[in-house]
Amino acid sequence: MSAKVPRCLEVCSSGMADWASIQTDILGIIIKKLLIPDYIRFRAVCTSWNNVCKDVSYCPRVDPWLMLPPNQNPLGAQFFCIPERKNQSIRLPNTASLFESVWAPVGSSNGWLIYFSHTYGTMQLVNPVSGKHIQLPPIGRRTFSKAKLLEISERNFIVAVLYGDEKGYKITRKGSSNWSSVESKFILDDIIKHGGRLYTCDMYGTVEMWAEPPRAWPDEEVTHRWRFRCLIETPAGDLVRVKRLCQNKFAVWILDKASSSWVGTENIGDLALFVSHYNSFCFPASGQPNLKANCIYFIDIYNNLCAFNLEHGTKELVQTLTIGRGQGRNDYHRWPERDQVLWFIPSLK
């Protein structure tokens, strides 16, 4: 029996290969190896390839990105891909107007960015990959500390805003035409939705679960000089509390739901934490080039991307980034006054 001859690309009359006729399973293998920006270009090649991309079983690679400040002539959203150690650019015509100097990104979650216009006192939810955007109710021009996207789905979205000089938070959801105010005992540093309930961390490190009866976990040590605290949910559904002990050191606790207490740990397994003032999240490190497990990724005071190893308690330089003032960042509306960064995980939804 003669050996089967591998199927070759058909050649049209002009002598060019008929790329649209490539087998679907081969295209699927290619798609799974693509980064999001390459995937966007891939699906724009022809109708046939675009139809293959609509199959949910063929998904591109998803990596943690660091959103970079726009330059003098922004091409769109600029990102630094952590595993690939290189910049990525997403340029979408239907969202280009949102990346003008009047808009500043102030939050990110589930593949969506929160943009705030200090000029108009309004907010937008923007997915820079899909091009979708959602207008939020007017919130006013007053400067706030951070905005958090607590939940987003086809049925609902919930956004909360924290103020650095005011107790409590403001919240809005799909279908609402305004923002509701919720009081707290102290100024809040972070807020997260976990297990269907809201958790907050105040300026003294106390974590509180917003339920009846209220439950609170006070911090064992109050630190103000390097004050940074955040709450992160892991893929396994655990709630993690991160605290910055000093300039280059962090501590981590995991909520033990059985005993309703925080347990300190120096081992988060095959996970990496990405922390910043505006948003923080957890990401699996396995299978990701240049991404180390059991580490906390952050930006130091010298604008370096660094990794803090929880087990050894040491800081490692990952990449030097050019993101300081002096790159056309004198305009307040181009980027928030606070020199902080924004982590981002792209999503096709």
TrEMBL record:
What InterPro entries does its record include? F-box_BR-signaling, F-box_dom, KIB1-4_b-propeller
- Which Pfam families does the annotation name? Beta-prop_KIB1-4, F-box
Q: Where does the F-box domain lie?
A: 24-57
Say which domain of life the source belongs to. Eukaryota
Q: Which ranges form a coiled coil?
A: none
User: Could you tell me which residue ranges the KIB1-4 beta-propeller domain spans?
Assistant: 79-309
Name-wise, this protein is: DUF295 domain-containing protein
Identify the species of origin: Zea mays (Maize)
